[in-house]
Design goal:
Number of strands: 18
Number of domains: 6
Strand content: 5-15%
Largest sheet: 5 strands, mixed
Distance between the termini: 68 Å
Shape: elongated
Radius of gyration: 38 Å
Helix content: 40-55%
Number of helices: 28
Length: about 700
């Protein structure tokens, strides 16, 4: 084996810029490419299969071969080097041949002589087909180094004959070669033999590595015909298998399993022809071993281990996540199995994948570094996060990164500085949140978490203020994500999918990339795409009659229904205030009573904080616009109602204290009031969804 020639060829291709440098994954994937190579004078061509459609792309590399005079110089130089001549005549090519060519004034790997790669796919030289040609040619040169000399213009037999002729000329008297006569007399024997007889038959070539070029037989089952029929009774010479067939019914095409009757001879013939054709393709170099680079004779490899290697190779080749259904068709071992066994083999192999490969949503397989690299996540700071001064772990940026195994230590770039994080969540609640400490976001501000480097993890966190955000910007991406999830939920509507599974599905389908960053799953506009998706138990998205409706723009969340009015004692409490303030406080109090149906003075069943924040962010600005109130005036009027309730029932002080403090946040409320569009418009629906976004999932769904 001339492994030195393989490595030298790859280095030559990169040095001459015939191909851009390849990553280890690209090189490994190209080595498994399905291609048929041909070597001719001045040209290497490869017919490369494109995908599973059976199409062929032809990649070529052309070189300027040596002329006849150049080859005579090379042959003379080889004959003058004992080691080079010995290796060449023993059937191999050693690294000293390159030095011999240099001594002859030539280069074994010429530069600047009309080389140019081409491919019928029309892509530049970085296309996959040229990479397959280069890597497969390297393997071929390692097995048969004379192929490269053939490209340079000399067939093996022609070269060996030329070298032997040069050796014969040097051995003749007066031939000018190293065989000289001694000065003792004309009959003296020559000294200093060109070749050592003891080493003439020695070779560094492994006989098992000598390439075999078998051809397919004209009659594929000739051997079975010679052996004759199997000695089986008629009742035993029958078997049944199931084949997939396409059946058209009701205007739709279905793939069903249909029984096929076969004799034992037909089964044996089918297997024999398939194995023989595959072995011939492997021997001709048209296909590389699918399971390992160097098969070990006599060692049985379990099917799941073989399929795991095929899955890893296919994922490396595609560079994206690949679905389980596609893997059962694309992996050679799985494709040769019955459908049920193929599915089991692929799923079993998914549990034995090499390190660095992940299974997403139990439906896709991908490489962790490829999925994480370039990912981006949008996170809007919620009201609870703003009040607590730290980000919640319910954000999808945190959920996605932890699902992919991206754990600290991590470096985060914020405001032009790199901050090292040893943990996502501070164990001590009193420790400041690094993202909040460095960026100082407020409620409604948007943080973008972009992955700069997957290993080690490096994030770039940028801040966009709420006044700079366009509420309609993510809507097309949100609708596309909602349609995708609705399609998957339809397969099992009652069980649905969990929120982490939904995030993994979106990751596998190419979301969370620049230009395709959706809103959180709990905010996706499911009703807008015509799907009755609800939130079931344990934060699962389901499509059934049970469960709570997902957020509907313009609608009311179940539980906030028409209720009792606050007692008339409020009028006495407000009696000392000017008429506009009394009127505003009464309107807000009545509106809140409609939203909260329970007894506002019952300490055993206090109103939830999430219900009040929804009222504050989505309903109160509308009332303030109708009453022509400024933000501070509206908040003061709303605050008066809750202060009255605390005065009427002191036991409610603990329940209403967060409500009263929330009414002191004038700036967020001013922004909501200033951005309020006309009612019953698409802009108003987006504005109302923004109110849910400020609440966060915990207060909106629970």
């Amino acid at each position: 084996m001339a492994e030195w020639l393989s490595e030298r060829w790859l280095a030559y291709v990169e040095e001459e810029r015939l191909l851009l440098p390849m990553t280890p994954g690209q090189r490994k994937s190209a080595g498994r490419g399905d291609a048929r190579l041909t070597f001719a004078r001045g040209e290497i061509a490869a017919e490369v299969s494109v995908g599973s459609s059976g199409a062929i792309a032809v990649a070529t590399l052309r070189f300027q071969p040596f002329g006849a005079r150049d080859w005579r110089r090379v042959e003379s130089a080889i004959a003058g080097d004992a080691e080079a001549a010995r290796r060449l005549l023993s059937g191999t090519v050693g690294p000293e041949l390159e030095q011999v060519c240099n001594q002859a004034g030539l280069s074994l790997f010429p530069s600047g002589r009309g080389r140019m790669p081409r491919c019928t796919c029309g892509q530049p030289i970085t296309c996959r087909h040229v990479r397959v040609l280069v890597v497969r040619a390297a393997a071929a040169f390692g097995a048969n180094p004379f192929l490269w000399l053939q490209v340079l213009g000399r067939e093996r037999e022609e070269l060996l004959a030329g070298v032997r002729a040069q050796l014969a000329n040097r051995a003749e008297p007066g031939g000018g070669g190293p065989a000289r006569r001694s000065g003792a007399g004309a009959g003296a024997a020559p000294v200093g033999p060109m070749l050592d007889p003891r080493r003439f038959l020695a070779t560094d070539t492994d006989p098992a590595g000598i390439p075999v070029r078998p051809e397919e037989a004209a009659v594929p089952d000739a051997l079975l015909r010679v052996l004759g029929p199997l000695p089986l009774a008629p009742e035993l010479n029958r078997t049944r298998r199931y084949a997939i067939a396409e059946v058209t019914r009701w205007g739709r095409t279905f793939r069903v399993h249909q029984p096929v009757e076969e004799t034992a001879e037909q089964v044996l013939t089918r297997f024999y022809q398939t194995v023989s054709a595959g072995a011939a393709r492997l021997a001709r170099g048209e296909r590389s071993p699918a399971y390992r680079d160097e098969p070990l004779p006599g060692t049985r490899v379990p099917p799941r281990s073989r399929v795991a290697g095929e899955i890893a190779a296919l994922v490396d080749e595609r560079g994206t996540c690949v679905s389980m259904d596609e893997l059962t068709r694309a992996c050679p071992t799985a494709a040769a199995l019955p459908p049920e066994a193929a599915v089991q083999a692929v799923r079993g192999a998914a549990e034995r994948l090499p390190a660095g490969y992940v299974v997403l949503a139990d439906r896709y397989v991908g490489r962790r570094d490829q999925i994480v690299a370039g990912a981006a996540f949008r996170h809007v700071v919620t009201w609870p996060e703003w009040q607590a001064g730290r980000l919640s772990t319910e954000g999808e940026w945190f959920l996605a990164l932890t699902l992919l195994g991206a754990w600290p230590p991590v470096t985060a770039e914020m405001n032009g500085r790199a901050v090292a994080l040893q943990q996502w969540v501070r164990e001590n609640p009193s420790d400041p949140d690094p993202f909040v400490a460095w960026l100082k976001p407020e409620v409604g501000d948007e943080l973008t978490f972009a992955v700069v480097e997957p290993e080690p993890l490096r994030l770039r966190v940028t801040l966009r203020r709420r006044a700079e955000r366009d509420l309609l910007e993510p809507l097309p991406i949100d609708q596309a994500a909602a349609r995708l999830l609705a399609m998957w939920i339809a397969g099992n509507p009652y069980e649905g999918i969990a929120e982490p599974t939904a995030v993994q599905l979106l990751l596998a389908e190419g979301f969370y990339r620049p230009g395709r960053v959706p809103d959180p799953v709990w905010l996706l506009p499911m009703p807008a795409v015509g799907e009755p998706v609800r939130w079931g138990w344990d934060r699962r998205l389901v499509s059934s009659y049970w469960g709570r409706s997902s957020l509907i723009p313009g609608g009311q969340v179940p539980g906030w229904r028409e209720g009792h009015r606050i007692t008339a004692g409020l009028g006495d409490y407000l009696a000392g205030l000017p008429l506009p303030e009394r009127r505003a406080a009464s309107v807000f109090a009545e509106a809140w009573a409609e939203r909260w149906p329970g007894n506002p003075l019952d300490p055993d069943r206090p109103p939830p904080y999430g219900a009040f924040l929804h009222f504050l962010l989505n309903r109160a600005p509308v009332i303030a616009r109708q009453l022509n109130l400024a933000a501070e005036e509206a908040l003061r009027a709303l605050q008066l109602g809750f202060r009255y309730l605390v005065r009427a029932e002191p036991a409610m002080a603990g329940a209403y204290e967060p409500f009263i403090r929330a009414c002191e946040a004038a700036e967020p409320f001013r922004h909501r009031l200033a951005t309020l569009p006309a009612l019953r418009t698409p802009e108003f629906q987006a504005w109302e969804m923004e109110g849910f976004r400020w609440l966060g999932p915990a207060l909106s769904l629970e």
